[in-house]
Amino acid sequence: MKKNIYQAKGHLIDSGLFSKIVNTILDEGLDYSVEEMVIGKQPDEQSVVRFSITSNDEDSLDSILKKISPLGVYTLNNENAKFEKADKDKHAPQHFYSTTNHRTEVFVNNKWIEVKDQRMDAVIVKENETTLRCVKLRDIKKDDLILVEGESVRVYPPQIEANTGGFAFMSNDVSSERRGEIAVSKIATEINEIKKRNGKIVVVAGPVVIHTGGADYLASLIRNGYVDGFLGGNAIAVHDLESRFLNTSLGVDINTGKVTEHGHNHHMKAINIIYGQGSIKNAIDNDVLRDGVMYEIIKNNIPYCLAGSIRDDGPLPETVNDMIEAQTQYAQIIKGADMILMLSTMLHSIGTGNMTPSSTKTICVDINPAVVTKLSDRGTGQAIGVVSDVGLFLKTLSEKLNCE
Amino acid sequence: MKKNIYQAKGHLIDSGLFSKIVNTILDEGLDYSVEEMVIGKQPDEQSVVRFSITSNDEDSLDSILKKISPLGVYTLNNENAKFEKADKDKHAPQHFYSTTNHRTEVFVNNKWIEVKDQRMDAVIVKENETTLRCVKLRDIKKDDLILVEGESVRVYPPQIEANTGGFAFMSNDVSSERRGEIAVSKIATEINEIKKRNGKIVVVAGPVVIHTGGADYLASLIRNGYVDGFLGGNAIAVHDLESRFLNTSLGVDINTGKVTEHGHNHHMKAINIIYGQGSIKNAIDNDVLRDGVMYEIIKNNIPYCLAGSIRDDGPLPETVNDMIEAQTQYAQIIKGADMILMLSTMLHSIGTGNMTPSSTKTICVDINPAVVTKLSDRGTGQAIGVVSDVGLFLKTLSEKLNCE
Amino acid sequence: MKKNIYQAKGHLIDSGLFSKIVNTILDEGLDYSVEEMVIGKQPDEQSVVRFSITSNDEDSLDSILKKISPLGVYTLNNENAKFEKADKDKHAPQHFYSTTNHRTEVFVNNKWIEVKDQRMDAVIVKENETTLRCVKLRDIKKDDLILVEGESVRVYPPQIEANTGGFAFMSNDVSSERRGEIAVSKIATEINEIKKRNGKIVVVAGPVVIHTGGADYLASLIRNGYVDGFLGGNAIAVHDLESRFLNTSLGVDINTGKVTEHGHNHHMKAINIIYGQGSIKNAIDNDVLRDGVMYEIIKNNIPYCLAGSIRDDGPLPETVNDMIEAQTQYAQIIKGADMILMLSTMLHSIGTGNMTPSSTKTICVDINPAVVTKLSDRGTGQAIGVVSDVGLFLKTLSEKLNCE
Amino acid sequence: MKKNIYQAKGHLIDSGLFSKIVNTILDEGLDYSVEEMVIGKQPDEQSVVRFSITSNDEDSLDSILKKISPLGVYTLNNENAKFEKADKDKHAPQHFYSTTNHRTEVFVNNKWIEVKDQRMDAVIVKENETTLRCVKLRDIKKDDLILVEGESVRVYPPQIEANTGGFAFMSNDVSSERRGEIAVSKIATEINEIKKRNGKIVVVAGPVVIHTGGADYLASLIRNGYVDGFLGGNAIAVHDLESRFLNTSLGVDINTGKVTEHGHNHHMKAINIIYGQGSIKNAIDNDVLRDGVMYEIIKNNIPYCLAGSIRDDGPLPETVNDMIEAQTQYAQIIKGADMILMLSTMLHSIGTGNMTPSSTKTICVDINPAVVTKLSDRGTGQAIGVVSDVGLFLKTLSEKLNCE
Known about the structure:
Alpha-Beta Plaits, Rossmann fold, homotetramer, conserved putative lor/sdh protein from methanococcus maripaludis s2 fold, alpha/beta, 3 domains, 5-stranded mixed β-sheet, 19 strands
């Protein structure tokens, strides 16, 4: 019978984290015993809980920390973390520590050091005695010092640090029966607050934005300074251009909604115009492209990345076809974002979520409630869902923000 | 080898009906041969096709007419229809003719007579030599003369009579990627045209209208004279009243979107207030209820029916709990409707569709594309789908119609 | 500044209930202070927490108990509950207490008395000094003693009493990406355990069961003794009969999947056959109906109720058209059920959930994940979702239970 | 007033094509007049229709052919096609002809020549006097002779050439209420027929196949010779490997369905194992990977392509990260396919559909009916939808095909 002592500290009770911790322990067939518990008596006080886990099954006991560490649990052993050298490029030691998207500290040289560039599914490399950094498996270099699993990591899920605040009303709220107008108002308020403190807002958007008539409204948000970074794919740009050059989106007339039988080729005409110009940028410089989402992005020097995909037509010259490169650019653009607004694109939303720390406010607008569930299943648990027609959503948001 | 001759007349080609006819014949393993075909050379000209079907399998040949008759096919035999007496109440002869929702004529006394009260899934009763009427199975009286299957029926699917016109753009269009704003504009135009000619518009609505913030907008449509009949269930009335008395809908605050843990009991408080008043009508007369959907309906003397269901709370005094009675009232209210606007309620929409002739313009607004598909599967093939957030849809419609 | 003291006792921490309690308090803008907390040190020990809430806003303070009482919170005042007389039939006093679906005790004559016939959205009537009962608003009689809101109620949400156990894996799990086969196996195991202890299983089913080919499998479950009560509507019976008499379901051939153009009238033929026989029961007695879901239900004397609805055809003689009566029969049939299996019918599932205590294991199988969310939104929070094709689900379940 | 003469030939009536043709004309505000019509009198006879279109609006008249050409309409002018030289790489002449996915002939040197490598959204390059080929915009070389829009193209939509046959039952049938077992049987029969004549079957699959427990069944289909090409992304391979090395899929235990809190990192462990081996292939050769989908694909030398995407982890060494290259490999693998089976992946299905000629039988299995609609909206109109749990679908298919 072996027994280990663990501790967690923070908003354990109101966040429900302690509940998740004990359920995880019980699900593994282990027993726990609370050794000491100091409950935050007022809402702003933190709680501390020290508990032991005992088991005959040493394997379970060894692996339980891996499962409860993402919930904010750590040991009190104060052992320094162990690092092992990568035996070759792109290959971590067998028992490498794989990161969460939560703020993380590692015990090195008898001190807790915060890890830089936090993101999920990375390894932690010790660059020097005081610098630890999240690195993707593929970016490991031979002889990099890689953190291995052990008892020297402390993870801070966002709930442990503070309450989720005014947006809590929408948490896990992906029902399509809730009032869309209210959600828009709250998001507008939040956006205004972020911009007041010079915060950063990144938009991730799919082509449905164009099909549903949201293009002019999204363009107005950009023109009015509400967008500091833009992530999408080839398709949203193609359909934005199609709508500017040929007044259709996927062959559907933007103004009348009339479907042109094989008006589908309109998007090819748009691509060919850009190919003739050499790039979207050239088309703007040559006064060929005069408005729309891509126009505003480029004209206002908004950092952006159009990531390629297997289903692309063209692709446009500005589209980044190498996925490694596209992921690098995406990661650069979201750096330091206060809010990410994901508009009707599961693919790019999951891609973005993968590289976003859990402390970033993330809002996901889609007519399909399943998209938010899936985003959350993939680790972006902080995403707040708004089930709505994205075109009408952008119209209302643009109005609430008084965009011109 | 037996051979029968059939004919169809009308917009056979542009409507695609002739295509459906020959495919139905081939699917049954039968052969056809076109005997004569006169094609409408201009768009407004009708076509006539005469064709024969031959088969060794007499059973298939006997039953094929049942399958192609709803597509507008009839024989040229000019035999008078056969009627059989009902042997008892509520029981049709074994081979009774079951109606479609399309305009229907029957050959009686060497003349084609149009059937009254057309609806689907009824029998046709000969009231006298010149009057035929659709009657539900359950309303059959002993000795009623019931039309039996045979060769003396002519059905006019709506496509055979005219093109579907300006709404065609949305036919079978249940994709959530289409632009909601355009759909609203077209519907507003159509509503204006109907009201200009003193036409009749019936609204069928579910409680999601209230939850999504559409109540004030729907109330404004009623107040401004755009609604001539209202069909719903107990729930939309309960939640409308809850929002008036307690400012919540299903316990969700109408203005802030905040969910009250077990604010669910608010709807019970609302019901109790009405129980105390005796009825919604009394609550209005006593100045207890002063606005909202139910207020406008009753204040403006709009004919309405709230049909009960197994999931009702209360139910409200105005709710009709006997389903036979509720169906009777529904049927009365839709009589002569030019447009039926179905708002986020599959149950009541299918119920209404069951008793509506196919010539009535039917629009179905729901955030879930599957609802329109299901409505169409259940026989209401004329329904045009708009996939949208119903709250934002009503807001936009109310604005386009300049409602105050 | 006013201050009240509250207590909760049970599985507060592992269940997450205490987290919900403090968040509810904070959402109301109130402050709390933990006075004393005894944490269950081992998994099977209960916790006790005593805390105070203070506020300048007496209204909020007065209403907070209503919001946290469903989470298991009560006062220590030991005041006897107050009851007020109903001033007339069907009308509760203004501040009547509206029930949850959780086990409830009321403090009467200095003792906690458990309420009988627990269900949500009822009032509590004091029948005599030792008997309290849930009664629907509409069943209130003049002079009934109705419990009013106050501090003398104690509610036991299921989480407070025990862990959710082996089914936890599926809780709130409505993702369609999880493995259906595993869910079926767990349900089969659970069903076997319930039947071993002579427990009661009720099935609620919609017509999709027939359309998707599940009829024979559901019939086999009934024949093999796994179903102790059956709830549905007119439609599942009609399509079951249609499939037996005419080999189609909604006009779709059961064996070939071929759609018969207007084979839709087949269900009317089925209804007419039953109308001719007088009832489904007669059709069985007369050897006209020889197998299927309705056959097995009636042959095996399974208590059942077919509730009418506004969209019914017929309806069948066995269908209960008065909704008050149908709700009464439903409530009778689910009494004492250990498991309710809800198969692809939102309407009847919500109807059933409304009258089911939260302690009843409830499983909801539907191809649409939104159905489970909606059921839970409507108060049936204990429902576990399985997203699956219900036909294939029943086939697999029937196999796992070795049904013949 | 200008007037043009057009003709169409083939299964115009039963296919509904002529209906679409005249509706397209009317939607454009043009008039038509049927000059001559010879109707196929028997089912296997083709029809011929010659008609004129007149208009004052020459622009509409000029553009109408573009809209009706994809429906099989052509002129009788017998003018030779015009080709223009590309002025630079990757740039077509302004009025280039953009292809459909239907078989296409071009009139060159007074002869109709069939275009090679048919796919949608391509240009047609004249390689020499007798060879025309579909080329993507990006593959155009300076001085390539590119077909421009005009009157010398003849398109053969699949309906014009033959009836859709035994699968018609499922066409446009994306309702989740239809019987899954029947669909599986029909597909199994079709697969057997294709394999009997040594036909080619390509599978496109997403990671949901693994999550829903379909991996062993898909592996058995490959092992038993039913799969001749495999298209997917990085994710299906990662989760297949995760399930083989760690017995979980996305952290969910394959056998028990239990979710491991942050078991999500399991997929990173799987990637690291492959990184250590250098490739999936090496892992098989070194006996590290011994079964599963990727094992069977590589062991049986099935041509495959894993296309990268912005949301990939790793990616695996075998994943193709450059989208241009991935599209090239995809196109190579589907060449000559008789059937493409698309399993729960919208991204790769649309990508595949984009390059597939419309004559290829395409089946799309997904639990979400919207996926098939979207695939069809994107031009893959021939796709037949099966709404089902893909895990249970593959289990049943594997059984019907007697896979070991």
